[in-house]
What we know:
This protein has 139 residues and is mostly beta strands. 14% of the residues lie in helices and 45% in strands. The chain has an eight-stranded antiparallel beta barrel.
Amino acid sequence: MKTNNLLLISIFLLLLTGFTGCTSDDPSPSPTDPRVAMVGTWSVYESGAKGSYEATIALDPSSSTGILIYNFANSGSTSNPAQADVSSTNIILNPDQTIGDGWTVSGGGSLVSSTKINWSYSLFDGATNYNLTAVYTKK
């Protein structure tokens, strides 16, 4: 009987020390998906005629590397979102996609900090091609 109790106590202590070794020093580890840092609402300052507005970035549920950018280039909250692919901190707009009132956009951006994205893109409105830059600041 004493041997069984000693064995049970030994197993208990071994398990107890194993559990204490599994605690994490950082309760919120950084995400492994680089898109996660881009998700949210952003204040936008665009170099072109669009000026200042808001855009929202969400994960594209149909792609493991994609994001959806609502109100890209101030296209309107009811227009199709711009679609882009993310690789590390780089964002590449899907080429020649149509958003807003039939605008074609292409180009990309880069996440330069957890709260800032720099963009460089072109927008063709059917008559004129605009080369634009924008800075997104996370709200």
